[in-house]
Design the sequence.
C-alpha cells in the first residue's frame, strides 16, 4: 500500500479481510475514521486505517470492549496498561469459572440435592477473609480455652497443632483444591465433627500435660503406628501370642503418659481412645487438608489402629 493512496471501503475490506459492514460500524463509532471522502460522498481510507483495523480486530479477539479500544487507537491509553488491566480481569473471570466448574463437578459426583448445591456454591464463593473467619470459628470450637485449662500443654504445642489443621486455599486453586475446600468447609461446620475433634484434642492435652519435660511427648497414635505398623506389615494376628510384646510396648507408653498402671482398665481406656482417633471423618479432614494446601497425601492410620484396637479388645474381653 502506498501512503498517499486512498481506498474505498470495499477495497479496504478486501485488503483487511473484514466485511464492509464491520468497517462501517467501526467508522461510525469513530474508531477508524475515514481519511477523506470522494466527490460522491463515499468514504476513503489510507494505509493507517488498515493498520488501525488490524489492531482493532486483534484487541476485539482478545476481548476488549469498544470504548477501551477507541482510547487505545487514539493513544489516550497505552496498550501495555490496557493489556495488564485486561489480563487481571481475565484472571478473575478464570478463577470464577474454575470455582463454578468445581462445584458442578462435585454436584455431579456426589448427586447433591438443591440445598447441598446451594451450600457448596456459597462456600466456593467465599472471599479470603470469609474463609479465614470460617476456619477460625472451627479452630476456636476445637481449641478455644484449652490453653487456660489446668491440664493444658504448652502454648507452642497448641499453636503447632492448629497450624497443621489450617487450610489455606491458594489464589488460583485448581478444581480438585476447590472441591476439597468445599467438602472440608462442610465438615468443619458439622457440630458432631467439631465435638469429636474437641474430645480428641482434650485427650491429647491431658496426656501431654503429664510430661515432665518442656518438649511435647510423642502422642499415642504415633506410638501405636510405630509399634504396631511392622506387625501389620508382617501379618501378625492381633489375637496371637506374637502380638503380646507389641501391645505391651504401646500400652506401657500410654501408662507412662497418664501416670497410671498398665492394667485392664488402662487398656480399655486406650482402646476407646484409639477408636476415637480412628474416626473416618478425622482422616478425611486431613486428606482434604493436604489437597487444599498442596501437601503430600497423609498416611492412613486406619489399618494399624484397627489392628491395635482388636489386639486390645482381645486382651480385655
Sequence:
Amino acid at each position: 500500500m502506498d501512503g498517499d493512496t486512498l481506498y474505498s471501503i470495499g477495497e479496504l475490506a478486501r485488503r483487511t479481510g473484514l466485511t464492509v459492514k464491520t468497517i462501517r460500524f467501526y467508522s461510525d463509532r469513530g474508531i477508524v475514521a475515514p481519511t477523506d471522502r470522494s466527490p460522491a460522498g463515499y468514504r476513503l481510507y489510507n494505509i493507517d486505517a488498515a493498520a488501525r483495523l488490524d489492531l482493532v480486530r486483534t484487541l476485539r479477539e482478545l476481548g476488549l470492549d469498544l470504548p477501551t479500544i477507541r482510547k487505545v487507537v487514539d493513544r489516550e491509553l497505552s496498550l501495555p496498561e490496557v493489556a495488564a488491566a485486561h489480563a487481571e480481569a481475565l484472571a478473575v473471570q478464570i478463577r470464577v469459572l474454575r470455582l463454578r466448574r468445581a462445584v458442578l463437578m462435585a454436584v455431579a459426583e456426589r448427586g447433591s440435592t438443591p440445598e447441598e448445591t446451594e451450600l457448596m456454591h456459597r462456600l466456593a464463593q467465599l472471599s479470603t477473609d470469609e474463609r479465614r473467619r470460617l476456619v477460625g470459628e472451627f479452630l476456636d470450637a476445637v481449641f478455644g480455652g484449652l490453653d487456660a485449662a489446668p491440664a493444658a500443654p504448652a502454648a507452642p504445642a497448641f499453636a503447632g497443632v492448629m497450624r497443621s489443621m489450617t487450610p489455606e486455599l491458594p489464589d488460583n486453586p485448581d478444581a480438585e483444591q476447590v472441591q476439597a475446600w468445599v467438602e472440608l468447609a462442610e465438615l468443619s461446620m458439622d457440630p458432631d465433627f467439631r465435638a469429636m475433634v474437641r474430645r480428641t484434642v482434650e485427650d491429647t492435652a491431658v496426656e501431654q500435660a503429664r510430661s515432665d519435660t518442656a518438649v511435647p511427648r510423642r502422642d499415642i497414635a504415633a506410638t501405636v503406628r510405630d509399634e504396631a505398623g511392622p506387625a501389620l506389615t508382617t501379618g501378625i494376628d492381633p489375637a496371637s501370642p506374637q502380638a503380646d510384646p507389641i501391645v505391651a510396648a504401646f500400652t506401657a507408653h500410654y501408662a507412662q503418659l497418664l501416670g497410671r498402671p498398665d492394667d485392664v482398665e488402662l487398656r480399655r481406656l486406650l482402646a476407646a481412645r484409639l477408636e476415637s482417633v480412628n474416626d473416618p471423618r478425622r482422616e478425611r479432614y486431613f486428606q482434604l487438608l493436604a489437597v487444599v494446601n498442596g501437601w503430600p497425601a497423609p498416611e492412613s492410620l486406619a489399618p494399624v489402629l484397627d489392628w491395635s484396637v482388636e489386639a486390645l479388645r482381645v486382651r480385655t474381653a
Strands lie at 7-8, 36-37, 43-45. The domain at 7-77 is CATH 1.10.1660.10 (Multidrug-efflux Transporter Regulator; Chain: A; Domain 2).
